[in-house]
């Protein structure tokens, strides 16, 4: 190695070291930015676009930084709303009123009101894709009414609304439908499921301010057909079944009636695995939905003898049939809405691309009316719980 080569290598290493300690890549200081973590989008009654951004307030999040020692007073976040003819104009109006530059680099949640959802999310997706810093992994939610109702929800267990909604997704309480998922669905016809939020009173939870007696929770799911929200929606229970079909469910509880006395028996179901497979024989297309899981008895009000292996097999049979019927009910709702919400067309395209292209133009009608779907559920009841007889039955003996 020559002297010139050694000098070049040393200079390169020194340059790389300087890059590593240079600090921020952007020339803009962090304290000059407003990091948006929640975006709310809706239409007003007069057809205007309504854009609301939720921004954390750093001066209220750090103890001792809000005019004295101790916990700072006031909410640690704020919502700012503007109305305009489109989202770009609304964003510009928001920026004019804020002392910091808006940044979408930390946006994890996008909530859309029902009025906008029924018109379609094309404008929303177009706006998001044009923002370089926007994360395509941001989760979508729909509200049953005015989107700003979410801003009146009190923060009981978390300090910021986006934290609550992210935990709904992370804990598999709601479907994880992202901006990317919706964009992919648009290429296949715009059919998809997006979780709905519920709002109501807040019984049983103490509040410092009685006027904020509000509650927000995970609800059902909105069915999108052709990129627009259908009038048909999934209930909260059906939403859980949709999570199961979509392989986004870790565990759940299912209750059946005992075959001996019609008393309730509840099962905790875990290790859920579901597959969706197309089956093609000549010109005939069908689908097979198969699911397996493990279960144990969580509670029983029946006097049924859980020590008997034949009884356990009978319970397995009833449990499997119950879940299969729930699967078929949810699939029937998506058919009624003319929405291939579980994107079976993608499975057909991946496995049989030639067949898919031959039926692509008629797929809506095929899925809604003609497509045979076979559902098979195999739940292994491997534990009867800590006792064999119902505790209620034992105490009444």
Automatic annotation (TrEMBL):
Residues 27-197 form the Spore germination protein N-terminal domain. Pfam families: Spore_GerAC, Spore_GerAC_N. It is a lipid-anchor. InterPro entries: GerAC_N, Spore_GerAC-like, Spore_GerAC-like_C, Spore_GerAC_C_sf. Residues 220-385 form the Spore germination GerAC-like C-terminal domain. Transmembrane segments: none annotated. It is found in: Membrane. PROSITE patterns: PROKAR_LIPOPROTEIN. It comes from the Bacteria. The keyword Nucleotide-binding does not apply. Keywords: Germination, Lipoprotein, Membrane, Palmitate, Signal. Belongs to the GerABKC lipoprotein family. NCBIfam families: spore_ger_x_C (TIGR02887). This is Ger(X)C family spore germination protein. It comes from Paenibacillus rhizolycopersici.
